[in-house]
C-alpha cells in the first residue's frame, strides 16, 4: 500500500510539474513558446514521462491485483493451494488510451450503432486549418502555426465541439439519431476528425453554418480523441460461478464469501424485485436502467421519456453490447443466445427451464426453445462477424 501511494504521489508530481512548466505567463515573457523545436522536445519528454508513470503504475499493481474465474478460485483455495500462485496477471486495460484493447473496444461499440441503426448516413471529415484567425492571432512575432501545436490543438478542439453542436443540436443536416467520431493527426502535424452520423430524416441546411463572429477561449489543455452518442453499456455473459473475480492477497477470503455481482447476476436480482424488469430482455435493460459500478446493481433511470402505463419508468436511447462469445465455448455461446430470447430471468436455473422441464445444459435449452432447429444462429453469428469486420 505504501508503494502504491508513493507511485500515486510521483505520478501526480510529474503531471503537475509538466502543467506548471508549460504555463505561458507574462512574468516570464513567454519564454517556452519562443523555443520552437526545443519546446517540442521538452513536451515530448514530459509526455513520455507521464505515459511511463501510468504504465509503471499498472505494471507495479499487476503483482497485487489478480484475476481468475470465481469457480476456479473457490476450488483452488479449498484445496489449500498457495494464493500467491492464483490468477492471471492483468494486462494493459482498455482504459489505457490508444492501446489495442482500447481501439478494439471502441470499434465494437461503433459496430453496435451499425447493428441497431444500419450504415451511417453521413461521413464527415473535419480538418484543422492552420490559417484560422483564432490560431494566427495567438502566434508570437515570427512564429508559424507549426511552432505552436498547443494552440492548434485547442482551437481545433473548440471548433470541433461547435461543429458537433451545429450537427446535433442545430440539426443542419437533419435530426441526429446518434454519432461517433475519432481524432487523428496527419503527418504534417494537423489534427482531423472522422465523424459518422446517423439521421432520423433529412432537413435542408439554411443559412451559414458558422456565425459571423466566434469567440474561442484557449483554456482547455487536454481533450479526448474519441466521442460518441448515445452511450453503449457493456454487458457481461458468463456461466454460473464463471464470472471474473479480481482479488488481492488481502481480500481473497472476502471475495470468496461475497463475490461482487456482474451486470448479468445483478440483472437476475433486479428481475426478482422489479416487475417491469421482468418484461425485458437482457440487451434491452440499459435503455431503462443504469448500472451503478460502485454498488454493482441496476437502478432505474431518472431522466428520459416516460413509459406509458409504467409510472416512474423512463426510457433513453442508451444501447447495449453483450460481449461476444466464441462458438467453441459452447455452453456460454448458447447462454448468450438464450439471453437474447428469454425475458426477465431470475437465475441460471430459470434460463435452463422450459415449460417446467429443467434442462441439463444450455444447448438442450436452445433446442427445446426452437432456437436450433435450423442454421439461423450460425447465420446470425456470421452476419455479426461480417458486420464487425466490415470497413463500411
Please give the structural blueprint.
Layout: H1 2-21, H2 37-61, E1 66-69, H3 70-78, E2 88-89, H4 100-117, E3 122-127, H5 133-136, H6 149-168, E4 176-185, E5 191-199, E6 226-229, E7 232-235, E8 244-247, H7 252-257, H8 263-273, E9 289-292, E10 297-300, E11 305-306, E12 314-315, E13 319-322, H9 330-339, H10 348-351, E14 353-354, E15 357-358, H11 362-368, H12 376-389
Parallel strand pairs: 7-13
Antiparallel strand pairs: 1-2, 1-8, 3-5, 4-5, 4-6, 9-10, 11-12, 14-15
Helix pairs in contact: 1-2, 9-11
Molecular structure report:
With 392 residues, the chain is α+β, with helices and mostly antiparallel strands. It folds into three domains: 1-61; 102-224, no CATH class; 233-389, no CATH class. 38% of the residues lie in helices and 16% in strands. The chain is built from twelve helices and 15 strands. It has helices at residues 2-21, 37-61, 70-78, 100-117, 133-136, 149-168, 252-257, 263-273, 330-339, 348-351, 362-368, 376-389, and strands spanning 66-69, 88-89, 122-127, 176-185, 191-199, 226-229, 232-235, 244-247, 289-292, 297-300, 305-306, 314-315, 319-322, 353-354, 357-358. The strands form six sheets. Strands 3-5-4-6 form a four-stranded antiparallel sheet. It has a three-stranded antiparallel sheet with strand order 2-1-8. Strand 11 (305-306) and strand 12 (314-315) form a beta hairpin. It is globular, with a radius of gyration of 26 Å. The two termini are 48 Å apart. Residues 68-77 and 202-221 have low confidence and may be disordered.
